[in-house]
Amino acid sequence: MSTRPSLGLEPSHTVVFVHDLDRMIEFYTQELGFEVADRGPVGDDEVAFLSQGVNHHQLALVTGRTSTGKSDTVDHTAYHSGCTLGELKELWRRLDAHPDVTEVRPTTHGNTWSVYFQDPENNGLEVYIDTPWHVTQPQIETLDLTLSDDEIVAWTRETFQDRPGFEPVEAFHGRRLRALGR
To answer: What is the pTM of this model?
Structure first.
């Protein structure tokens, strides 16, 4: 239980160390739709700031990475998307076919439909959209993105409806707002 009032913090950006800045900029701009907001030197390294919105950056790529495996400090960075289920499926197909992307895993937590993957330098990412429901977490199931949108919605409801906390997401949001005094 929190003893301090909420500061209303929300995720802002992630900084990722990379080996090949140009290759990573190409991946994030071509496959995920980021734009380079700024780029320049930082000490002996170089940084590129990437964004998809009005904020200066959601992602900063910085040269100087020394390891080649998965990060031992960050499992993944998650990006909430306002895209449709159809657009999430298209992203999944593109990433699954990309020669430098690995471990592409469509997943649902009951409250999200997600695509998890490792970028070309093995950094973990998640792109997700909301489902119409809240489900007490943790929950995880493999998601079949070859199904139609209607089949995915029906399957998700059927799979999670008997699990703890299953309810319309609006009910969960209402409780959270009341708990925050809003």
So the answer is: 0.83
